[in-house]
Amino acid sequence: MSPRPQVAAVVLSMGNRPVELARAIDTLLAQEGVDLDIVVVGNGWEPTGLPHVVRTVHLPENVGIPEGRNVGARESRGELVFFYDDDAALPTSDVLARLATEFDRDPRVALVQPRGVDPTGLPSPRRWVPRLRTGDGGRDGDVVVFWEAVCVIRRSAFDAVGGWPGHFWYGHEGIDLAFRLVDAGWRLLYRPDVVVNHPATSPARHAVFYRMNARNRVWVAKRNLPHPVAELYVAVWSGVTLVRERDRENLATWFRGLVEGVRTDAGERRPMSWSTVARLTRAGRPPII
Questions:
Q1: Distance (Å) of CA 147 to CA 79, 114, 127, 191, 223
Q2: Taking the model in full, what pTM does it have?
Q3: Domain check: are 215 and 75 in the same one?
């Protein structure tokens, strides 16, 4: 009889959604077939009033989403790390057990993403589906991008590529991590038959969205893409933004972020191989858009 999967559940919270956080934890505690170590990271907030089985980490200042997740990963125990937004919920008791089976089937699997569904019936944002065709939630199988809000990652793979880029603070940390995992030869899987609930919200609701969206696009290119693909990636996304965004103030903020990304240090540069560029292209995700 194989041992039960050891899953570290990392929940990042700013303490501003107590009802949603309680529901997120309750549905975690209801999971069957896995051994859980639940860690709630208080990002600028000291977590209180949680079930005694939940461990907590208090960060006096908000360090951003990717670094908060890194802290939770370091503090948690388990070969599989489940990153879980504090406004998400698991509608059935077998979500984690079903996702964990993929890691036993193939030691090359680094990450498994379930399907996100808004519990009120709102349409799922396209960014939740790691497919070009998003109808009916997209087909299952290998992917080369993923949705960061709810996913399970093999710890050894996560550590090997350096985890989330903590200095990104917000935005595109998933693209950066996906590029590094794919370049290291790992597989990423999508399981649309496994559903998690999450409210369908716009990333533009965050005050830092336009600046960090642009800056981090440049940082992703500087860190991960070979020349001249890096320059083409930034140029294409600049063009896409000009077409999509009509608000002049938002555009001005976006281009200030673009300049910031060009002028500032993006962190360690590890350009992917040309074989990885080809793999992304074959998957319908050429690293220029």
A1: 20, 9, 7, 12, 20
A2: 0.95
A3: no
Domain membership flag for residue 278 = no
Q: Are the beta carbons of 191 and 102 closer than 8 angstroms?
A: yes
Number of domain units in the chain: 2
Any idea which residue has 């083409």 for tokens?
A: 232
Shared-domain flag, residues 140 and 23: yes
Phi, psi for residue 208 in degrees, rounded to 5: -90, 5
Largest CA distance in the chain: 62
* CB distance 100 to 107 below 8 Å: no
**Any domain includes 71:** yes
Q: What are the tens digits of pLDDT across the range 155-177?
A: 999 999 999 999 999 999 999 99
Owning domain of residue 268 = 204-272
Contacts 24+ apart (CB under 8 A), 229-234: 229/277, 229/287, 229/288, 230/271, 232/288, 233/287, 233/288, 233/289, 234/258
Residue listed under structure tokens 């077939």: 33
Statement to judge: residues 164 and 79 lie in one domain: yes
